[in-house]
Write a structure and sequence with these properties.
78% helix, 18 helices, 394 residues
Length: 394
């Protein structure tokens, strides 16, 4: 599969894509509204950052306990139910008088459910397109994510400024509901990819099998840690520039879109694989000068440039799919997603804590420097690992 036209001619791809677009807009609008709501109520960079990315903190629990469900649930029913649950949770966050503690309880519960959703979603994409079309399809989803994040942050920022964060949350809930309808009507009934009942034991067994391969382990570390640390920088946009956070988020989404076009469509396969770690360095380095408090235009340009580096995730996902047997594809991609989101939540909490003690600008610089150092260490280790012949267990 070599063209976007072929993708959208593939049965089920278009409704799947449209539903994911609606959910991305809902997620970005809801996240910005929630972060703003908490920051206005508490004045705390830490609580604001955790409210936006805190659902990611519990992804590790889902990856440890629930992830076997990703390949053992019928995809259409599972994705429809998840969208309905997200709609209900987002609407609940808009309730007047909701305490900060109750708000965080909803955010964390949503994150636990979401840990299974990534595996179901990307496993289904691999079924719809098969492995030869997965990279192009995922790059289109990533490009869509960039565009929809721009739209979501722009719309959410306007709603927050002109009306209220709670209005933005209610609009986000309506978008989740629309996504549920599209998934229910647009997807066909498919059986689960694996047999047996979901269980903690099955989850642990599959995790151990996936982690036992050095090449796969290297991919997981590369996609989880540097990316997560840079998201810690992003979690501080609201406290760094309270009146312009929507602009910075939109610029980050624009840069991510450019990186996905570059990696998913323009680079030849050989060059694409060699640029995985350089793109991770690009992801971190433009944030280092934030210690000097650059004016908004320079900060926006730095954020845009840095986010091109998110294209590295496509390189890592392509490698992971190559190294994974078909019966574990959903689980492997779910572990990829859950681990990445968990690290993002941990990094957001860490960045918020550093900002609480120093300043948002100092915390952003520290997180970026840590990401660059980790990337250099992983690059050295990867050079040794990739010299070994890779095998895919049956």
């Amino acid at each position: 599969m070599r063209s976007y036209r072929e993708l959208f001619r593939t049965p089920e791809f278009t409704p799947f894509f449209v539903a994911a677009s609606a959910q991305t807009v809902a997620q970005t609008m809801g996240g910005l509204a929630l972060g703003t709501l908490v920051y206005r109520a508490t004045g705390s960079p830490l609580l604001s950052a955790v409210s936006m990315f805190g659902s990611s903190l519990v992804q590790v629990l889902g990856a440890s306990l629930l992830l076997s469900a990703a390949d053992r649930l019928p995809p259409r029913a599972a994705l429809t139910a998840l969208a309905l649950l997200f709609a209900a949770a987002t609407a609940a966050l808009a309730l007047p008088g909701l305490s900060v503690g109750a708000l965080f309880a909803i955010v964390l519960a949503r994150g636990l459910v979401e840990s299974v959703g990534g595996g179901v979603r990307w496993g289904l994409l691999n079924e719809i397109l098969t492995k030869d079309g997965y990279l192009l399809g995922r790059s289109v989803f990533n490009m869509m994510s960039g565009l929809m994040q721009i739209a979501g942050y722009a719309t959410g920022g306007a709603l927050v400024a002109l009306l209220s964060p709670r209005t933005s949350l209610l609009v986000a809930a309506a978008l989740y509901l629309a996504a549920a309808v599209i998934l229910r009507l647009g997807l066909t009934v498919r059986p689960p990819r694996a047999t047996g009942r979901p269980s903690v034991r099955a989850t642990w067994h599959a995790n151990a099998l996936l982690w036992s391969s050095p090449p796969r382990r290297q991919v997981y570390l590369a996609v989880w840690i540097p990316n997560g640390l840079v998201v810690g920088c992003e979690s501080l946009y609201v406290s760094y520039a309270p009146e312009s956070a929507g602009t910075l988020f939109a610029c980050a989404a624009l840069g991510m879109l450019a990186g996905d076009v570059l990696v998913g469509r323009l680079l030849p396969p050989g060059l694409r694989r060699r640029l995985g770690f350089p793109l991770l360095l690009l992801l971190a380095l433009p944030y280092v000068p934030f210690l000097l408090l650059p004016p908004l235009p320079l900060a926006a340009a730095a954020v845009t440039l840095a986010s091109v580096g998110f294209g590295a995730s496509l390189v890592q996902q392509e490698r992971l799919v190559e190294l994974t047997p078909d019966t574990l594809t959903g689980h492997a991609l779910g572990l990829h997603s859950a681990g990445m989101l968990t690290m993002q939540g941990v990094a957001a909490a860490l960045a918020g804590s550093i900002a609480q003690l120093t300043s948002p600008a100092a915390a952003m610089t520290a997180m970026a420097a840590a990401s660059a150092v980790v990337t250099l260490l992983l690059m050295t280790a990867d050079g040794r690992t990739l010299r070994r012949p890779a095998t895919v267990p049956g």
